[in-house]
Amino acid sequence: MILDAADIAGLSVLQLVHENTAAATMFGIDRMDKDKPVTVLFYNMGGMDTEVSIVRYSTVTEMPANKTYEQVEILAEAWDADLGGADLDRILMDMLAERFNALKER
Predict the structure, then answer these.
(1) What is the edge-to-edge ordering of all strands in the sheet holding 38-45?
(2) pLDDT tens, 58-94?
(3) Concatenated DSSP letters for 58-94?
(4) Peptide linkage before 64 cis (omega within 30 of 0)
């Protein structure tokens, strides 16, 4: 679907990047404290599914040039195609309806 849209727009797609990987890359670029390693969990609940990525940010020093580079490692990615905002809305609606019906029975 994305590739079809790009084709219609006359765009040449070189590579697709996973949504959480793109967010993790942007976080790494914007991150202020780059001196110490940090591990971050990225959580993305859409309307129909949920995606989670665990990412480690660190620096690597290359010898003998003694140059320091930032490193981003995607440690894990997981998703649940059956858990999204619509499912959460349904659960909340059922809970509220149950409480409302309990009030009517008093």
Answers:
(1) 38-45, 50-62, 67-80
(2) 988 888 888 888 888 999 999 998 889 988 899 999 9
(3) EEEEETTTTEEEEEEEEEEEEEETT-SHHHHHHHHHH
(4) yes
Task: Quickly count: other Cβ atoms within 10 Å of residue 98's Cβ.
Answer: 9
- pLDDT digit string, tens, across residues 10-69: 999 999 888 898 999 899 888 888 788 999 999 999 988 999 999 999 988 888 888 888
Structure-token match 């480690």, residue found: 56
Q: CB within 8 A of 37, min separation 6: which ones?
A: 56, 57, 58, 59
For tokens 């006359």, the residue is 10
End-to-end CA distance of the chain: 53
